[in-house]
Here is the input.
Amino acid sequence: MREPEVSPELAAELGGSGAPVRWERLTAPETAEVVQATDAVIIPVGATEQHGQHMALCVDTEVTTHVALGVSALTGVPVVPALQYGVSGSHGGLPGTIALRPETMIALVEDVIDSLYRCGFRQFILLNGHTWNGGALDVSAEKLRTRYDDARVRYLAYVTMYPGSEVDGRVTYGRALMHANFFETSLMLHIDPDAVHMERVVSLTDVDSFWDYRTDQVSRSGVWGREIDQATAEHGAAETARCIETTARAVAAAVAEPWPQPR
Here is the structure.
């Protein structure tokens, strides 16, 4: 997987060193120094699931980890190892997926944050790379907000910080079904081209629907999106850079945000 490339000038503006702070690469004494420098932490949340016939199972975890590391390099906020399994049961009978129940995801996130709270962190950013994790992460955030008086938590996707209408997914319908599409394929062609096999691409013309369905109920190939064969590494590089910068600016502002005073 490619290392994120960030602007030294932007890192200086947002408080980072230009290199990500990887929690798992620190020694125990070094973790205490990191917590003294910032009480915020990024927790990438991915998945291990089918991404059509042309991409590896690692897409959601690799993309959100890549963005998280770029944000860390720009802001100095450390990144813990990604949660690599997600709420992926909605892929149904399509092969390869390893799924958690929503209840399991909620418990896993609670345990991770409880551990990080004991380390001294008080601001928790759950950076999500898989849409169907959203419900569990919302519940986890609500439980943690009510558990701790001196902690704050926010769940967001790696594209949350710029308008959804600007995400060029080549998907018109399907709410949360956008999957293994032009956008994700472009990102992976930039981040980890060895995980992409463009000669196997099968696109899908999406249709309108009131309901959300399992992926295997609407797509034999496992994708949801058209014109996937037009994906490029150049487009992926531009979108990745925008995901990193917009998220980093939001995180830098968030960790400096004053706590509210009850009115």
User: Anything to note?
Assistant: The CA atoms of residues 159 and 243 lie 6 Å apart.
